[in-house]
Amino acid sequence: MFGALRTSFLTGLVVIAPIGLTMWLLWTVIGWVDGFVLPFVPNAYQPENILRTVFGIDAPVNIRGVGVVMFLIFTVFVGWMAKGIIGRSMINYAESLVDRMPIVRSIYNGLKQIAETVFSQTESNFETACLVQYPRPGIWAIAFISTTAKGEINSRIPIDDTLMSVFLPTTPNPTSGFLLFVPRKDVIELDMTVEDAAKLVISAGLVYPNGHVPPVEPAKLPEKEREKLSA
Q1: Which of 21, 43, 141, 182 has the fewest CB atoms in 10 Å of its CB?
Q2: 39-52 pLDDT tens trace
Q3: Which contiguous run of DSSP H or E holds residue 21?
Q4: Alpha carbons within 13 A on the beta-carbon side of 91
Q5: Whose CA is closest to 180, among 190, 169, 167?
């Protein structure tokens, strides 16, 4: 009976934990955005004052998500302005001022490049997962193909093959990692999507694509395993 109860408890925990953690994370992020955005909202447009003016309710109200909505509206407005001539002129003028500040210039340019890489709507993103030998030959790691090496990097490395720029993420935090320049012949492209490869990295090998461990070709099995299959 105790074993059955323990099994039921663990099964329920597997069902509840992802839902609970997801809701908690969303609730926390929404609260963080509200706490950051609402202090910049004029007092007349605060939720409490709007309820007092429109509905006559005079009570403290904590409505989660108001700051998120205002942040989205503000971001869309800024993006719409940035597409026009006036907006581009203002941005160029502001960037020219920032470029005159030594320390601020380095921080801004670095953050701008990261934002353009992450949120860019162009094709400059990771599209293919691959395997590379790291940190030494014979040990394989999952990486993501970025592009082919160009410029001085490509000309300085003494190798005849095409060099590939690959990003090798760390586990369980894939936002950090290493930039490697690997010959194309040493890169094994995978059929799995980038999302599936990221799940595999984050879970430390516990979550495989399609929810199961893919079959291994007999030629890639150790010698003892091949003998068992042949027997």
Answers
A1: 43
A2: 887 777 777 777 77
A3: helix 2-37
A4: 13
A5: 167
The confidence score (pLDDT) of residue 228 equals 53
Determine the straight-line distance between the first and last CA of the chain, rounded to whole angstroms: 42
Q: Does domain 128-212 have CATH number 2.30.30?
A: yes
Asked whether the bond before 102 is cis by omega within 30 degrees of 0, the reply is no
Please give the radius of gyration of the chain, using alpha carbons only, rounded to the nearest integer. Answer: 26
> What does pLDDT average to over the chain?
80
Top-ranked range on mean pLDDT: pick from 68-72, 115-119, 221-225: 68-72
User: Whose CA is closest to 209, among 217, 201, 219, 218?
Assistant: 201
With contact defined as beta carbons under 8 Å apart, do 147 and 165 qualify?
yes
Q: In what order do the strands lie in the sheet with 140-148?
A: 177-183, 163-169, 140-148, 128-133, 188-189
**Rounded (10°) CA dihedral 84, 111, 149, 156:** 120
Distance (Å, rounded) from C-alpha 79 to C-alpha 87? 9
171 Cβ neighbours under 8 A, 6+ residues apart: 201, 202, 204
Task: Count the residues in the chain.
Answer: 231
Cis status of the peptide bond prior to 135, with omega within 30 of 0:
yes
Q: Could you count the other beta carbons within 10 Å of the beta carbon of residue 132?
A: 19
Q: How far apart, in whole angstroms, are the C-alpha atoms of residue 144 and residue 22?
A: 27
